[in-house]
Amino acid sequence: MEKHFICLANSYKHGGRCVAGIEVVPQSNGSLDIVRHGDGRPRWIRPVSMSANGEIPNHLAESFKIFSLVKLTDVEPCPDKAHSEDVHCSRMEICPLELSPTKAFLDQLIDTRHQAVFYYRGKAIPATMIDRLDYSLMLIHPENVSAYCDEERESSKYRMKFTYFGANYDFPITDPVFLEQFKNNPEIYSDLNGVYLVLSLGLEFEGFHFKLVAAVVFPKDWDATEKAQPDDEIDLSYMERQKLLYHNAYAKWTPEEDSELLELLGKNLSIKELTKRFERNEGAIRSRIKKLTMDPKENEKEFESDEEKLAHLIEMKNEIERQIEILREKINLKRSIQ
Fold this sequence. Notes:
Helices cover about 30% and strands about 25% of the residues. By secondary structure, the protein is of the alpha+beta class.
């Protein structure tokens, strides 16, 4: 089986590289159709080797750039807990297609489902809870983005701060190209409003899976010298950006629109055609179709499922707080010994 993906990350991983991107299907007219999950999220692919940590050797991966179109041959899925995107393949090669996506194109690739980074706001996921996740990669368009160097750290001292859906995050950076740029010109790359970030969940380390900035993605129309102003589009919230892209984004559906949507479904219109007709994004269209076609009993089951998810999240929160206390005691003990 062959698969293609737009490369969005080529980061450091255990002496090699972690290459990953979003799956696409090339069309005869030269366009690329984005492959999505049932909930509307773009589908990620991460080719891994047979080594213990799955890293791709540097000599094979260094030629893959951000926005390269990559072709994989003899693809076999090999998901590993939250790393559901992992695949084995016999060959990786770059296709002769130049991509330089704009903000509008990248907005089609961002994660529109998860409002917290890998379910909650912490810097790492305890290994005991990793089975509850079914994804380990996401592209986001955050706010208040800045890179900095924490000189007090012995490792992971190059870090990224950003805000996402009102929560503040601070993760290590593993993007080799960006790290080189930042080290050479820290004054330019410290203020990064308008960029997109690929976030990744690392392999287990001392009982935790740490969250990482695997790639800093610059849209074609990003200007390194441009400083964000209050009215700039790059400072808008996700909801406001969607309203700029889709006239009816977040507007209440009318009974007339519901009737028309059901009618057009019977005519087998594609989701893309429906987004143009109703001027709403794909997630909104899929969600409305699900609501209109779902049996009331199924709707009740979904409500119960949401309650169960909430209970699990509360349980996760309590477990995380317990782990924090254990780690804090461990640190304090080490300090007292020193």
